[in-house]
Amino acid sequence: MEDNKEKEIHRAVNPGDVISEEPQTVEEKAQQLAVDSPDITGDHIQVPTYFVVKEPNGEEKALHHVKDAEEISDVIRQARVDEEGNRVW
């Protein structure tokens, strides 16, 4: 019975907020959208489920937009702009 309750809870949330239990590659995660719909102004909004960042060792890591929000904020704070106005991460 508890399994059904848990599944019901997941149906109530945004599907992009649910983290898949199936193993996925960084590339597969990078293609998922949490939001893909028009907003109240009519603009079409797309929000990725995962934000892919490069670790200092060069390895890519997929950060979930809800679960890893604090780490995503930390990465954004580390962004710098070079002399030509290009953002450097």
What order do the helices and strands follow? HHEEEEHEE
Count of the domains: 1
Question: Strand fraction band?
Answer: 25-35%
The whole-number mean of residue pLDDT values reads 82
Q: Can you summarize the main beta sheet?
A: 2 strands, antiparallel
Question: Layout of SSEs?
Answer:
Blueprint: H1 2-12, H2 26-30, E1 33-38, E2 44-48, E3 50-54, E4 60-64, H3 69-77, E5 80-81, E6 87-88
Antiparallel strand pairs: 1-2, 3-4, 5-6
Walkthrough of the structure:
This protein has one domain. 6% of the residues are buried. The chain is α+β, with helices and mostly antiparallel strands and 89 residues long. Helices cover 28% and strands 28% of the residues. It has three helices and six strands, in the order ααββββαββ. A two-stranded antiparallel ribbon has the order 1-2. Strands 3-4 form a two-stranded antiparallel ribbon. A hairpin with a 5-residue loop joins β5 and β6. The mean pLDDT is 82.
Short description:
The protein is built from 3 helices and 6 strands, in the order H-H-E-E-E-E-H-E-E. The chain has 89 residues and is an alpha+beta fold.
Q: What are the key terms here?
A:
3 helices, two-stranded antiparallel sheet, 28% helix, 6 strands, 89 residues, alpha+beta
